[in-house]
Amino acid sequence: MTEQKYQRILLAIDFFEGNGDVVQRAVDMVKRYAAELFVIHVNEPPTPAYGADIVTWGSQVYEINEQVRAYKKKRLAELAGELGLDEQHTALAEGRPAQCIHQFCDEQNIDLVVMGTHGQHGLALLLGSTANSVLHGSGCDVLAVRLKAD
User: Fold this and answer.
1) Angle at 28 between CA 136 and CA 93, to 5 degrees
2) pLDDT tens track for 97-114
3) Which of 3, 42, 78, 119 is the most exposed place for a label (fewest CB within 10 A)?
4) What global pTM score does this model have?
């Protein structure tokens, strides 16, 4: 059996603490296979719990989301700089993380996704996680790196 040769690797990052191991694993895979690296972060906009919230809190939610988006754009640019990536190799998407990651993989012909997982237990396991959704809907391999608990 021959080993898979990955050519286009996607690092899906969430910017939570403890992602250093995930980034390092992606870098290691890129070096191992002399692959091209891409990075994506998906901003999942907050959704109000009740319809009335849209009317009373709409502008505040929009402003907060704009601030969050600006912060994440800055973090993505910093990470891209650390990894030596240009704009064509990074993406800040909006929406449901698994769907955005799947779409990016299809558009960029990604053959490996590297992402962190918190290791869901109990109710969270039943409801699923982003890593689980990416894994089960992906047309390519997924490497889920276990994040260390604090």
Assistant:
1) 50
2) 999 999 999 999 999 999
3) 3
4) 0.84
